[in-house]
Every structure is written in structure tokens, then in C-alpha cells.
Amino acid sequence: MLTKMAYLKALPTEVAHAATDKSQRFLVSAHEAVEATFDTLHKIRQLRKSEGGGIQGQLTNNENDQLRAAIVFSGAGLDATLKQMIRDTLPLLLEAGNEQAHKKFEDFTHERLGTGEIADTRILARYLTSASPRDRLIEDYIYDLTGSSLQSKEEVQKVAGALGIDNKTLRKKIDTLKPLFTQETRSPTSWTSRARRNQETAAEGPDPSDTRRRSATAPSKSAS
After folding, report:
1. What pLDDT shows up at residue 1?
2. How far apart are the first and last CA of the chain?
3. How far is C-alpha 112 from the chain's CA centre?
4. How far apart are CA 98 and CA 151, in angstroms?
5. How many CA atoms lie within 13 A of 137 on its CB side?
6. pLDDT tens-digit profile of 168-197?
7. d(CA 49, CA 52)
């Protein structure tokens, strides 16, 4: 039997909380999407082997597309989960007086308002004339954290700091995300569209172009 070449670890046991319910669902959906992509990859490889093709050596374009799609879905899931968590929990963390979250909020406020001669009086007026200057600052802080895609491990670290996460082990794990944001795995529109087509047509057989390529380059059956 062909061994599955890629799989995910199970998610940790969910800690139920109303404020993290939506972000938790985003995380579960992303996990399921990546696992489904790995399942599709496994089915494609099983089909290739059943047709007498060799499965050693380089992967086909279709198979590589599945792995790229898994990276895309992982990044998109991380992005959606963290942004939703910011929207739903950051105001609560600041209200509860989380020390690190409050310090990061202070840093944002200092940068936003400016000091001395470089203070922007129009921005100051905007906050001072609002019904709640603090709430308005928090809204802008949330927008600053969620307004664009998370495109680097540094941005993920920034979000972690904003959420008051100070666990050193977890923060070190965030540093290992760097390969997720390399140039080769960004701008994945073409990969995801092709991966989606692969998922829809996997049962019909591999891409004919890949079949021709394998017939010219695949090793003998004895090598599979």
C-alpha cells in the first residue's frame, strides 16, 4: 500500500470561549482544507501507481500544485484566524488590563498621534471630538493590525504581541513560519485555481500532459 506522503497533526483540544469561537472555526476550516489537499495528492499518486507509473523521483506538476495549494491554504487560514481573533478579543484584553497588550497599544497610540512639533493636529482633533477617543483609537489599532495580509513572520509576531502572547516557546515557533512567506509561495492565485481543478477531476485520471511526461521519464515498474 502506498504510504501517504503528507499529513497534518491533529489540532489541540479546543478551549471553548465565546470570544474565540469564530476564529476557532476559521482554524478548523483551514486545517480541513489542507488535509483535504493532502488527501487529493495521495489519491493522485495512488492512481499513478495503479496505472503502472513510477512514484519515485520528482513529483508531477499536478502533485506539486497540491503541495503549493496546501501552503496557500495554510497561510490564508493563519491570516483569517489571527485577524478574527484580533477583532474579537483585543478590546477584551485591553479592558482586562493585559500588560503586554496594553503596552503594544500604547506604542501604537504614541506613533499614531506623534509628539511635539510632528504631532498631527487633525488626527488629534479627530480623536478628541469623537464620543470615545479611546474606543476610536482601538478601532484604528485593530484596522492597523488587520487591514492588510500577514506577509511575514514579523507581522505574525506583531499580532502575537498585540494579543499579549508572551510564551517564549510559542514565539520561537512563529519564527519557523518564515518559509511560508518566501517569494516562491506568495501570489498563489494560479496555484489555487489549478489545485481546485485537480480536486474536481482527480477521479477522472491525471493530467494528460503529465502522463506523456511520465511515459518518457518514469523509471521501470521494478523501481516503484
Report:
1. 62
2. 12
3. 28
4. 26
5. 21
6. 999 999 999 888 887 555 444 444 444 444
7. 5
Percent pLDDT > 90 in the chain is 49
Residue 164 contacts residue 99 (beta carbons within 8 Å) = yes
Contacts of 165 (CB under 8 A, 6+ apart): 100, 171
Nearest-angstrom CA–CA distance, 108 and 124: 14
Q: Where are the alpha helices (DSSP H) in the chain?
A: 21-50, 61-96, 99-113, 121-128, 133-146, 153-162, 168-175, 189-201, 208-217
Q: HSE of 24 in the Cβ direction (CA atoms, 13 Å)?
A: 12
Q: What is the CA radius of gyration of the chain?
A: 23
By the 10 Å C-beta count (0-12 exposed, 13-18 middle, 19+ buried), 119 is classed as: exposed
Pairs from 47-52 (Cβ < 8 Å, separation ≥ 24): 47/202, 47/205, 47/206, 48/206, 48/214, 49/2, 49/224, 51/206, 52/221
Tell me the three cell numbers of residue 133. 477617543
- Coil, strand, or helix at residue 60? coil
* 31 contacts 194 by C-beta, under 8 angstroms: no
- pLDDT score, position 175: 92
Distance of CA 85 to the CA centre of its chain: 13
Instruction: Pick the more confident residue, 204 or 139.
Output: 139
**Which residues, other chains included, contact 9 with Cβ-Cβ below 8 Å and sequence gap of 6+?**
none
pTM above 0.90, yes or no: no
Q: Are 109 and 137 in contact (CB under 8 A)?
A: yes
The three cell numbers of residue 204 are 477522472
Nearest CA to 159 out of 109, 95, 112, 89 is that of: 89
